[in-house]
C-alpha cells in the first residue's frame, strides 16, 4: 500500500495534482485546501511530499486504484474520520473539504449546521449526520494551523459594500489587518451576506460571542 509520495510537482488539474517520481507520473486527488497550499510545500527543486490514502474506486466495469494526497498525517486522520459519516465516500469527502479543517472541526463541535452546508456537496441532512457522528470526537483537529491558507473572503478586488465596511472599521480604530480578519471570518461563516449592514451585524455578533 502506498502511504507517502515524494517527487517533482508537475501540474495542477481539477481536484488533482500530478507528481513525477523517478519518471513515473502519478495523478493524486486532493481537496481544495491541499491544492491551495501545494505551492507552499515545494522545496527549491520543486519537489513535494504528500501523505497518501489509497482506495479502489469500483464501478460496473473495473476497479481503479485511486490516490488521495494530504499535507500531513493529521489531515489524513481527519479525512478518515470524515468518511465514517454515512453517505460520504472518499470522492465526496475530497469535494467537501473545500475549507480549512480547523474551521470544519469548529463547526462540527459547535453544531454549526449552517456552516457545514457551505461545504461542497453537503446539504442539510448530511450536515446533521456529520454533527451526529463526529461531534465531540474531532476536537484535536482544530489545532491544525491551516487558517492562514484560507482563500480570503475579502479579496483584493472587494465589492463596494465590503470596502464600506472596511472603512467603518478603520474609523472605529481597528487596525487594517484586524479589520480584514474580522470580515473574513464573518463572510466565511455566512456566505449569504450581501450588504454592508449584514456584514457589520455579523462582525458584531461574532465579537460579542468571543
TrEMBL record:
Entry keyword Magnesium: no
GO molecular function: ATP binding; DNA binding; four-way junction helicase activity
Gene3D superfamilies in UniProt: 5' to 3' exonuclease, C-terminal subdomain (1.10.150.20), Nucleic acid-binding proteins (2.40.50.140)
Keywords on record: Cytoplasm, DNA damage, DNA repair, DNA-binding
Occurrences of domain DNA helicase Holliday junction RuvA type (ranges): 1-56
GO biological process, one term: DNA recombination
Transmembrane feature ranges: none
One Pfam entry name: HHH_5
InterPro entries with a match to the protein in the record: DNA_helicase_Holl-junc_RuvA_I, NA-bd_OB-fold, RuvA, RuvA_2-like
HAMAP family, sorted: DNA_HJ_migration_RuvA
Protein's UniProt name: DNA helicase Holliday junction RuvA type domain-containing protein
Lineage, top ranks: unclassified sequences, metagenomes, ecological metagenomes
Amino acid at each position: 500500500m502506498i502511504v507517502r509520495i515524494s517527487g517533482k510537482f508537475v501540474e495542477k488539474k481539477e481536484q488533482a495534482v500530478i507528481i513525477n517520481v523517478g519518471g513515473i507520473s502519478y495523478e493524486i486527488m486532493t481537496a481544495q485546501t491541499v491544492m491551495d497550499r501545494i505551492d507552499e510545500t515545494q522545496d527549491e527543486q520543486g519537489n513535494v511530499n504528500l501523505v497518501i490514502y489509497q482506495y479502489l474506486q469500483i464501478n460496473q466495469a473495473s476497479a481503479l486504484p485511486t490516490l488521495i494526497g494530504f499535507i500531513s498525517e493529521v489531515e489524513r486522520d481527519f479525512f478518515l474520520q470524515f468518511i465514517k459519516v454515512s453517505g460520504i465516500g472518499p470522492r465526496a469527502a475530497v469535494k467537501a473539504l473545500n475549507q480549512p479543517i480547523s474551521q470544519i472541526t469548529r463547526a462540527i463541535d459547535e453544531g454549526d449546521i449552517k456552516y457545514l452546508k457551505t461545504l461542497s456537496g453537503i446539504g442539510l441532512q448530511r450536515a446533521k449526520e456529520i454533527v451526529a457522528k463526529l461531534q465531540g470526537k474531532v476536537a484535536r483537529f482544530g489545532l491544525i494551523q491551516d487558517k492562514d491558507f484560507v482563500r480570503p473572503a475579502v479579496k483584493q478586488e472587494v465589492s463596494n459594500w465590503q470596502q464600506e465596511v472596511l472603512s467603518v472599521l478603520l474609523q472605529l480604530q481597528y487596525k487594517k489587518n484586524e479589520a480584514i480578519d474580522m470580515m473574513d471570518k464573518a463572510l466565511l461563516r455566512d456566505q449569504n451576506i450581501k450588504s454592508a449592514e449584514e456584514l457589520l451585524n455579523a462582525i458584531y455578533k461574532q465579537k460579542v460571542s468571543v
